[in-house]
Amino acid sequence: MKKLFGVLGDPISHSMSPVMHNDLFKLYNLDAVYLPFHVTSSKLEDAIKGLKALGAAGFNVTIPHKTSIIPFLDKVEPLAAAIGAVNTVVNEDGKFVGYNTDGSGYLEGLKMSLNPFEVDKVLIIGAGGAARAIYFTLADAGIKHIDITNRSIEKAVSLIESCPYPVNSQPLKLDQVEDLLTEYDLVVQTTPIGMAPGIDKTPLSLNKVHSKTFISDIIYNPLETRFLAEAREKGCLCQNGIEMFVLQGALAFEKWTGISPDLERMRNNVLTQLGGTTC
Ligand code: NAP
Fold it and tell me: Is the CB–ligand 1 distance for residue 135 below 6 Å?
């Protein structure tokens, strides 16, 4: 019988996951389908019950349900529980188990360009959901010094206070951090600033950055944000959000099927959906 997968979100029509996962099912001859499900917050519990009744094999969860889904799951793995957000659910013997592959997707994507275990000091820009997943995952992976800068400094403070992993972190104001950029081996931009249509904006000035700093921006639309373009002009190595998106999907696919999927194919699929050919 065909296995059912999908993604729950509101809105959901923009999601690139259905095309990406259905292409993999075809590639690996799997009798499965991945559908977008538009689920409003008030219908989330019913939607989970419905998916369970239908025997769905697994699904992704996106904005705004990544945190609110947790009470409706049978179990949540420890890292996702610490992050307080789930983006992947696996049907394990009839139980819905929640995972978070956003942070591990970021880390695995980063490893394609950088050895994270040679990174001493990281700066994360932003303190929202994506920042939380990346911060906890990097701390859990053993990176010892990770500072957080955010528009609302109290959110950076509370993010640092809530981290269950041993890490040395300072909350910093956005304007304060511009003079400190040379201290960091890796800067991770996690705010939506610079995302289409607001492509002329950057979260902070990179005037004082050193070319040895690796700059990553988890935005993938546009493929090169103004922040990344400025970093490249400064001679920095850069990475956009495509790798994180592809790897979070690949890790979910692996949990559902046991197959490590073809990353290059997934990457090309996403680039085609975005209308780009290079990045
Ligand atoms: P979120 O939870 O809403 O957090 C947004 C963060 O950005 C907050 O820290 C917020 O600061 C800050 N921010 C928003 N607008 C700002 C502005 N105008 N000026 C200064 N700071 C601003 O969002 P999220 O879920 O973390 O997602 C953030 C971005 O990551 C989005 O662009 C999303 O598309 C991208 N993303 C990419 C991937 C991927 O696979 N590549 C995965 C997940 C997310 P305050 O705390 O002050 O409000």
Answer: no
Spatial separation of the C-alpha atoms in residues 237 and 162, rounded to whole Å: 31
Q: In what order do the strands lie in the sheet with 88-92?
A: 32-38, 3-9, 58-61, 88-92, 95-99, 75-76
Instruction: Quote the pTM value.
Output: 0.95
Residue 205 DSSP one-character state: -
Closest residue CA from atom 27 of ligand 1:
130
Q: What is the pLDDT of residue 24?
A: 98
Could you give the count of Cα atoms lying within 13 Å of 102 in the half-sphere of its Cβ? Answer: 24
Read off the pLDDT of each residue in 181-205 and give the average, rounded to a whole number: 96
What's the number of CA atoms in the CB half-sphere (13 Å) around residue 197? 0
* Ligand 1 site-directed mutation target among 135, 151, 242, 243, most atoms within 8 Å of CB: 151
Clarify whether 208 is annotated catalytic: no
- Our answer on whether the CB atom of 156 is closer than 6 Å to any ligand 1 atom is no
Active-site annotation holder among 3, 26, 66, 75: 66
> What average pLDDT does this structure show over 199-205?
95
User: In the prediction, which pLDDT does 117 show?
Assistant: 83
